[in-house]
Fold this protein.
Amino acid sequence: MRVFLTGATGFIGSRIVPELLASGHTVLGLTRSAAGAEALRARGAEPHSGDIEDLDSLRQGAALCDAVIHTAFDHDFSRYVDNCEKDRRAVTALGEALKGTDRPLLITSSTGMGSPTPGALATEDQFNANDPSPRVASEQAGEALRAEGVAVIAIRLPQVHDTVRQGLISYLLPVARQRGVAAWVGDGTNRYCAAHVTDVARLYRLALEQGRAGARYHAVAEEGVALRAIAETLGAGLGVPAVSIAPDAAADHFGPMAAFAELDLPASSAWTRAQLGWTPQGPDLLSDLRTMDYAAPASA
């Protein structure tokens, strides 16, 4: 298949490119810069000029291909609500180009969208369209497109990691550097589910090749890693104390990341594994945190 890939030069998208090419697919990768275009050509992909706010460029790219994988997202958490709405518009535009066809559109969401109640294990069969999280916008857009016959598949992501980036943890690391302590909130038993980036890239390919329209798949290797364990590992790497922060002090300590530091986000991928034969093989989250280079600036 010829696949239109948004976020093609990003953390996850750049791993999806070789995964697709190695399986015989071709890639048209969205990029907004000459450097991005050069990087895509070097990897064997074709660049497509545009960005996720240029909706015409999204429609044009989707119309040229047999399938779409949408991984691009603006991770400025100071504008999180606006960026989730931006993603809603991008998903809608991509779907508009696929109406009247059976070409699949793989959108990206969060495992939290599969949790029936806060802190409950998220599963693939669950989706609360009225979830208070702004991230629900992506799957709301997907549901609207499904109702119009578009073959939408949702890939729900945990904390996707390697030794350079680790999802939300990459944004907590600068806080620990600035504050001189690596902290968790309360007893630190709230959890993040996680998966290595190479396993996540493979899941996108498997969902493209074998996925069922309307399905939701969880890219989860570890169902839940306690925030206390994460903070203690960060503290050891940075050489700073690991401490508990009282809930009423979280906003002052973590700033815009306070809400994320308190989330409890366990998730299962049992159904995904059974349906797609996906078996995670990469390192676990704490192993990557132990072996990352703490002298390097945090990448987010």
The mean pLDDT is 96. The first strand starts at residue 2 and ends at 6.
